[in-house]
Sequence to fold (219 residues):
Amino acid sequence: MIITISHQKGGVGKSTLAYNIAVELSKKHNVEVIDLDVQQTVSAYNQIRQEMGQKPLPVHVFTTPEELEHYFDALAEDTIVIIDSGGFDSSLNRFAILVSDFLITPVSSEFTEILGLHKYESILKELSEQTGMTITTNVILNKTNPNQKKFTELSDFIQSSKHFNLMGSMLRRRVDFANSVAYGFSVRELDKKSESSKELKEFVREIKEKVGLDAKKKN
Ligand SMILES: Nc1ncnc2c1ncn2[C@@H]1O[C@H](COP(=O)(O)OP(=O)(O)OP(=O)(O)O)[C@@H](O)[C@H]1O
Ligand SMILES: [Mg+2]
Fold:
């Protein structure tokens, strides 16, 4: 199972969500993380995790599609791979989109996010034309203002594209996401009762439901 957090726009929360999803899923599944970003954010988070005495995640860094392909050739079937892709368009990030079973795209709620999504949609459109399949990503509203209730323009735009599915869950802007990393934790490990934790739990539940994961628990 390959789950990729993908968006060519920077700073939307890809690495943050990749890390939190990986920690959460690794409680019951064999999880490996692939870091495709030149900034190696998720590797840095994992390094802090190790330094703070938490069990680190298995994180691999690849810089070419060939390396990634080679890794998949030898992958155990029950492994869940979480790919954190870079916030730019490249042959490596496109390859990750193509090999994935499930794509997740975080966006924040500002209207300007639509511009970034337009660009990402054109990438998915091109890849769909090349492969003859409709490639669809699951869009999660992330870093939304905790008081904002309506996201009409953004959600209308997302729902109007055959390349986007709007996820039912939403992650509000919470300081826990940055604070937890400083302690080598995910938001759930920092405080199970926090709002960020509840939202993350629901987000991961939705992912599991959509990919049909619960049947494949670790022995
Ligand atoms: N729900 C959230 N609430 C508050 N802050 C968040 C949330 N999600 C992400 N952030 C913060 O937003 C910033 C950017 O997040 P992150 O590095 O995960 O984005 P990215 O998409 O991986 O960026 P890049 O494209 O540069 O790799 C970080 O400081 C992170 O802590
Ligand atoms: Mg990143």
